[in-house]
Amino acid sequence: MSDSQRFTGDLSSLWKLQNLPPIHHLTWDWWWWLVMLDDEGGNPAGKQLMVLWSTKDNPLVEVNGHPWKPVGRPGFDDDGGIAMDGMVAAWWYDGKELIEPLVLEEGRILVVSEDHPKWPYSKGGIVASHTESEFSMGLNPSEDQFWLILETEHGKFDLRMTPWNNAMSSMKVAQAEYGLGMGYGISRLHGALCSGTIDGSEVNGSAYFQKVCVQAPSPPWFWGMLHLDDGSYIDWFVPHVSPTLTAKDSRHWKRRDITHYPLSMGGLFHDVSRQRSEKFSEVRVERTCNEHGLPTFHVHMWNGVTEIRIEAKSVTRAHWTFDQPTRGGMKSHLTYNEYPLEVTKLEIDDEQGVRTRKDWGSIRGNAEHSWGLLH
Question: pTM for the complete prediction?
Answer without folding.
Answer: 0.96
